[in-house]
Design a protein that fits this description.
Layout (H helix, E strand, L loop, with lengths): L1 E12 L2 E7 L11 E2 L1 E4 L6 H13 L3 E10 L2 E2 L2 E12 L10 E8 H5 L8 H15 L2
Parallel strand pairs: 1-7
Antiparallel strand pairs: 1-2, 1-4, 2-3, 2-8, 5-7, 6-7
């Protein structure tokens, strides 16, 4: 079974969160659905370098690192995956998409919770969003 390390970024700007509409994916059911920024960690690459590379490539955004969130194991057929997840604060809302995505939206937590877009790994995405909101209230 292939082992894969992945990074994912919850990117926030003025209390809205960035979601990207997926163009292609190794899991065909994910095509056309929405996700946060991220991707594979290359061999011998540390997670923070991969995070920076993926965020810059997919969004063009500059950001401030906020914190690392708990990691999780996504279910990908034939792959033993581990996902490192981070919260970032964008310096602006001016996104420049790569060819991996067709659209982007900045949505409030309420819009995401109400299902404004169809999310990849919806339950896990909303779990992280609720964790971020809970920790912000502390």
């Amino acid at each position: 079974m292939e082992k894969r390390l992945i990074v994912k970024a919850f990117i926030r700007y003025k209390d809205k969160y960035l979601v990207l509409k997926k163009k292609k994916d190794i899991i065909s059911e994910h095509e056309g659905l929405w996700e946060d920024s991220g991707g594979k960690i290359d061999p011998y690459e540390d997670p923070i370098s991969a995070l920076d590379r993926e965020v810059k490539k997919e969004t063009g955004l500059d950001y401030t690192f906020v914190k690392e969130l708990p990691e999780w194991k996504p279910q990908i057929p034939g792959v033993d995956a581990l996902c490192k997840v981070y919260l970032l604060e964008a310096d602006s809302d001016k996104v420049v998409l790569s060819d991996e995505h067709t659209e982007f939206k900045w949505l409030s937590a309420k819009e995401l919770q109400k299902g404004k877009v169809d999310l990849i790994y919806k339950e896990k995405f909303l779990w992280y969003l609720n964790l971020i909101l809970k920790e912000d209230k502390k």
